[in-house]
Amino acid sequence: MTQPATDHTARLMDGAALARRIVDEAAATAAGITSRTGAAPCLATVLVGDDPASVTYVRMKRNRCARAGIESRHVALPAGVTTAELVDTVTGLSEDPSVHGILLQHPMGRHIDERAAFEAIAPGKDVDGVTTHAFAAMAFGLPGFVSCTPGGIMRLLDAHDVDLAGKHAVVVGRSAILGKPAGMLLLGRDATVTYCHSRTRDLAAHVREADVLVAAVGRPRFIGGDAIKPGAVVIDAGYNEGNVGDVDFDTARRRASLITPVPGGVGPMTIAVLLSQTVRAAAHQESLRR
Ligand SMILES: Nc1nc2c(c(=O)[nH]1)N[C@@H](CN(C=O)c1ccc(C(=O)N[C@@H](CCC(=O)O)C(=O)O)cc1)CN2
């Protein structure tokens, strides 16, 4: 993996192109389900409040669904909704046989118990991989739905033939739907995983040791390229305002062997995995009804 640190530019991992292929596959599966059952796979999207970034992400998800022949049923709740009301809404969708998958957009507001809200999603409809059930299955290496961004990261690594066994993967960030599951998935592929976070001492020293770096802190250009090990694979899962990642791309690409751009890297993969898992959920629910 060693590369000279000068006169070098990393190869881009084109998440947008790979996402298009995954969405095309999902569209073909959706078409089959629709012709067999007379009803398209259906994703319920639940949005609390009107945070502009969340509004945009949910709109993007619904647009991609429409293009893939997946119905999306949107539930917009006021910012002041209580946890109990949100749980009731999600429980109703979990019990509705015409809904195959549920997406509850995060963040939901500081007054909401997000864990309680996520846990109201029936495991079979948790196409966003946010429940304890999904996390445990993923951690044990059992089949199930994975959290979409970490799932997208793994698909990007596989598409670029990145061999993870024995490699040192450093995950910067420990959120329940990104950093933590990303580290577990890498561990499941025999990487040696270090988690770093806001209380980590001398972050740069850890980053320097990373063969594979996953940046998921949510702070623009937080990780400078100078700390990146020459030849490292750099996955930037940051989605900060202005489409800026967590890694300083211009300096990082001079040292990395492979790097995801922002935009066009991990972001589109997140949505592609959501659609792919939605049609899988619909196909599974259809098989149970036969
Ligand atoms: N319940 C969930 N909430 C959130 C998730 C999630 O997976 N499940 N992820 C993030 C944000 N997110 C999806 O919700 C997301 C972020 C960015 C993108 C994306 O495609 N970005 C583009 C650029 C955006 C643009 O063109 O405006 C890119 O990187 O190319 C998709 C999804 C938070 N919440």
Ends: how far apart?
51 Å
Q: What structural class do helix, strand and pairing data support?
A: alpha/beta
Count of helical stretches: 10
What is the overall pLDDT average? Answer: 96
Give the strand order of the largest sheet, numbering strands 1, 2, ... along the chain: 1-9-8-7-5-6
Q: Beta-strand percentage?
A: 5-15%
CATH architecture verdict of the largest domain: 3-Layer(aba) Sandwich
What is bound: which ligands? the ligand Nc1nc2c(c(=O)[nH]1)N[C@@H](CN(C=O)c1ccc(C(=O)N[C@@H](CCC(=O)O)C(=O)O)cc1)CN2
Describe it.
The chain has 290 residues and is an alpha/beta fold. The protein has two domains: 38-123, 3-Layer(aba) Sandwich (Rossmann fold); 148-267, Rossmann fold, CATH 3.40.50. It has helices at 15-37, 52-67, 83-95, 114-119, 132-139, 148-159, 179-188, 203-207, 249-252, 266-289; strands at 11-12, 42-48, 71-77, 101-104, 168-172, 192-196, 212-215, 233-236, 258-259. A six-stranded parallel β-sheet has the order 1-9-8-7-5-6. Helix 9 links the parallel strand 8 (233-236) and strand 9 (258-259). Helix 6 packs across helix 10. The chain is globular and about 55 Å long. The protein starts with 10 loop residues before the first strand and ends with a helix. The model has no long low-confidence stretch (mean pLDDT 96). The structure holds the ligand Nc1nc2c(c(=O)[nH]1)N[C@@H](CN(C=O)c1ccc(C(=O)N[C@@H](CCC(=O)O)C(=O)O)cc1)CN2. The site of ligand LMY7XDAE has 21 residues, from helix 2, strand 4, helix 6 and helix 10. The ligand Nc1nc2c(c(=O)[nH]1)N[C@@H](CN(C=O)c1ccc(C(=O)N[C@@H](CCC(=O)O)C(=O)O)cc1)CN2 is lined by residues 56-57, 60, 103-106, 128, 130, 148-149, 177, 239, 243, 262-264, 267-268, 270-271.
